[in-house]
Structure to design on (817 residues):
């Protein structure tokens, strides 16, 4: 059951009662100064005006083959609470060059949304990335959008898997991170390090730290995933270097950060129930750093404040954490000039996630056997959950695992790549807590910059917090000389999907601007519009519409690097691709299943709608040929032009660069271009409105059908003729346009073998046996039972459930049977 009301559940209710008492009792005799108020007020203003929204996507699996469907469920949070008012979610599939290959605008409700990507069998295989976000999230650093690397394989090449980088000799890099940000002279401190190989994956190192006299002052050894730390008391005026090596013997010398002769630094000791902090000065006699302040915040909300006086020896204290939920605490040390001096992160790790478990599993390993399993959630708090059941022997897990817990509690708040973050949440052993603290030392919190918000340099809000879709524009009169002031624009919306009609009227302001807010419709709607001057001063009114950012598909700069997965079981991957190939054949049979009629001798094939369109438009050698046909009379493309439409749709055809003037190649040659079977150049085809195109034919190289032919194949574009604008009826006095709405979501196919159907005669090669983005738990029994049927071969099942609770907690359970 999804969250059904807008009631605010707050896990942050502990903030005011718990910590205000601590602040008052610790330093009740210290009067508040302007510099203190400036800092705390800046944080409070930022928290109030700029709430942080997050998105996480649960996928049915980690790897896919072309021809499969990517199923996903989105969870949306704001300030670590369910974002119940979020209405629009945007999800994109990006190729390795940042081109938008597919995209979805999905309706969100109850802090969730569900969707899918149908991967064409012709999709170019390789590395892709899924990006998901709300419009509000675009106002901030794009690194905090949701990203997931997904590799898509070619099932036809099951015996020629992509080669992995298994070179014995690897290049590597090491970064050093002094605790608190700086190495201060004569101040003992912890220095963390992080080592990665040439692919960006962690690598183990060992070595020593030497001073300028080549004396060893510290030992270096990796603790977990390329990370470790050592203690060092830097001497004044000294320079240090690290001499490190990897397992192959390759060695490097790396200079450590310079030793600072002035300033202050913050050290933390995370004791679980409380965090002990201590400030250290480079020069204990430097009175410029006597008065300082410590502020701790969680999710932009202050939880602790204390004023220090180094002159009186007051340089330390405790931050109580008993009432804090799991997550990152940011602790910052400020000077009395209001300048941030040092910063340190700590992670509060508790077993406070949703308690989920499986019970009463009755799983059949027989072909097409019926199975059932119970999901138990003893907590009475309302939850939103999704479930995936896959073949555990053929569907591989990415060793670099990201899940809802590691994302919502850790990686969504940090910049920088963290390998296999799910590992840190498997238990609360000392080993994992120490490794998690190394993550805090080597990755920075950057959701906001203290210096900027202290100077009132707040984020520029370019994108509103959307509530449904809106239609914005401007109306002008007198051939565009004047805005239509005090007029209106009338609308008629016709929905081809269900033949419904609705009406709206939007007034214009003194700039002629208008808006129709809170629109809700699926797929595509026909918009008929007419500008009206109420005072009838002008007969002509021209209406132009403001494009929505999602109507465009610019190339995306990817802040999150694509990395080739390592450590995959090639034998299991080969089995997966073999099954995916067979599954694609079954799906084609289901789509084009031949129906045989008794005592009827059929000599001619039935003409498909696509063939009908092709036969009406093509002629001569263009009517045949080896290639691909795309009938655009049966769809509403979102792309800007034909080149963007064709990206990644045709295997072997490479379209890259500026989409209005792309570079193209196929088998080393450039394809020939035709418009209505006449040769044209790139610019002419790029300027053809995608909505005016009826048919696109792409011919494999070589193509000899047109004038001159082409060693690089050909792209033939046909513009629409009368009758092909389906639903394009006109309304007198109104102009017309099409507007894309929410993407339709396909229903997951889950066969019921208890019922006899003709389609059951086909082989069952499903690798995702069950997927449901919305599962609910009974409020009385706190359990729900999931039923599903096996395919023809699976013997082991991986079952994963993820979800969020109404109070903001997250949960996950995974089991292999």
């Amino acid at each position: 059951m999804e969250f059904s009301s807008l009631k605010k559940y707050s896990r942050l209710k502990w903030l005011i009662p718990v910590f205000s008492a601590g602040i008052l009792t610790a330093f009740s005799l210290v009067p508040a100064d302007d510099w203190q108020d400036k800092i705390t007020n800046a944080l409070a203003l930022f928290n109030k005006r700029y709430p942080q929204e997050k998105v996480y996507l649960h996928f049915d699996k980690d790897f896919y083959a072309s021809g499969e469907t990517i199923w996903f469920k989105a969870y949306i949070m704001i300030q670590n609470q369910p974002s119940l008012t979020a209405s629009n979610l945007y999800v994109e599939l990006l190729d390795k060059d940042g081109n938008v290959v597919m995209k979805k605008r999905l309706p969100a409700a109850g802090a969730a949304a569900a969707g899918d990507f149908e991967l064409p069998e012709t999709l170019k295989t390789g590395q892709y990335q899924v990006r998901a976000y709300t419009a509000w999230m675009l106002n901030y650093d794009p690194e905090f959008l949701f990203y997931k690397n997904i590799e898509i394989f070619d099932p036809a090449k099951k015996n020629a898997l992509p080669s992995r980088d298994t070179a014995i000799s690897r290049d590597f890099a090491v970064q050093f991170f002094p605790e608190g940000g700086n190495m201060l002279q004569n101040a003992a401190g912890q220095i963390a390090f992080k080592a990665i190989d040439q692919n960006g994956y962690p690598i183990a190192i060992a070595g020593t730290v030497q001073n300028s006299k080549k004396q060893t002052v510290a030992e270096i050894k990796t603790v977990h995933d390329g990370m470790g730390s050592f203690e060092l008391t830097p001497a004044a005026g000294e320079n240090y270097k690290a001499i490190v090596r990897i397992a192959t013997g390759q060695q490097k010398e790396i200079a450590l950060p310079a030793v600072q002769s002035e300033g202050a630094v913050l050290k933390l000791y995370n004791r679980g129930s409380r965090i002990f902090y201590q400030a250290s000065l480079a020069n204990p006699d430097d009175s410029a750093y006597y008065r300082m302040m410590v502020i701790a915040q969680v999710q932009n909300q202050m939880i602790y404040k204390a004023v220090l006086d180094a002159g009186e020896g007051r340089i330390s204290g405790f931050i109580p954490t008993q009432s804090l939920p799991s997550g990152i605490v940011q602790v910052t040390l400020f000077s009395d000039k209001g300048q941030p001096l040092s910063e340190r992160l700590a992670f509060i790790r508790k077993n406070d996630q949703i308690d989920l478990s499986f019970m009463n599993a009755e799983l059949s390993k027989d072909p097409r056997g019926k199975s059932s399993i119970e999901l138990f959630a003893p907590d009475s708090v309302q939850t939103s959950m999704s479930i995936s059941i896959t073949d555990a022997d053929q569907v591989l897990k990415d060793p670099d695992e990201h899940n809802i817990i590691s994302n919502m509690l850790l990686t969504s708040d940090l910049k920088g790549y963290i390998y296999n973050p799910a590992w840190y949440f498997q238990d609360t052993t000392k080993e994992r807590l120490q490794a998690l603290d190394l993550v805090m030392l080597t990755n920075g919190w950057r959701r906001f910059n203290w210096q900027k918000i202290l100077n009132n340099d707040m984020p520029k809000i370019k994108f509103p917090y959307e509530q449904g879709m809106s239609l914005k524009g401007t109306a002008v009169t007198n051939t565009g000389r004047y805005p239509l002031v005090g007029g209106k624009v009338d609308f008629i919306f016709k929905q081809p999907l269900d033949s419904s009609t609705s009406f709206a009227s939007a007034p214009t302001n003194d700039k002629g601007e208008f808006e129709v807010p809170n629109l809700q419709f699926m797929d595509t709607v026909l918009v008929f519009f007419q500008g009206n001057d109420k005072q009838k001063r002008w007969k002509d009114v021209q209406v132009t519409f403001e494009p929505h950012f999602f109507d465009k598909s610019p190339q995306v700069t990817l802040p999150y690097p694509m990395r080739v997965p390592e450590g995959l079981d090639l034998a299991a991957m080969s089995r997966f691709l073999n099954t995916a190939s067979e599954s694609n054949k079954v799906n084609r049979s289901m789509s084009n299943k031949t129906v045989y009629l008794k005592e009827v001798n059929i000599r001619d094939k039935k003409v498909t709608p696509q063939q009908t369109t092709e036969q009406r438009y093509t002629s001569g050698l263009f009517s045949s040929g080896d290639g691909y046909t795309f009938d655009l009379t049966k769809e509403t493309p979102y792309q800007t032009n034909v080149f963007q439409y064709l990206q990644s749709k045709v295997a072997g055809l490479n379209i890259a660069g500026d989409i209005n003037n792309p570079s193209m190649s196929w088998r080393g040659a450039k394809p020939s271009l035709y418009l209505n079977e006449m040769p044209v150049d790139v610019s002419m085809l790029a300027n053809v409105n995608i909505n005016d195109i009826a048919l696109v034919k792409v011919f494999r190289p070589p193509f000899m059908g047109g004038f001159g032919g082409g060693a690089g194949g050909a792209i033939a574009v046909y513009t629409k003729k009368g009758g092909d604008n389906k639903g394009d009826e006109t309304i007198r006095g109104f102009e017309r346009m099409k507007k894309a709405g929410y993407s339709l979501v396909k229903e997951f196919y889950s066969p019921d073998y208890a019922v006899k159907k003709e389609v059951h005669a086909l082989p069952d090669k499903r690798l995702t046996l069950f997927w449901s983005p919305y599962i609910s738990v009974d409020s009385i029994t706190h359990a729900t039972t999931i039923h599903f049927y096996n395919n023809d071969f699976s013997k082991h099942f991986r079952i994963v459930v993820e979800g969020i609770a109404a109070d903001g907690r997250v949960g996950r359970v995974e089991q292999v049977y």
Summary: The chain is about 10% helix and 35% strand. The radius of gyration is 31 Å.
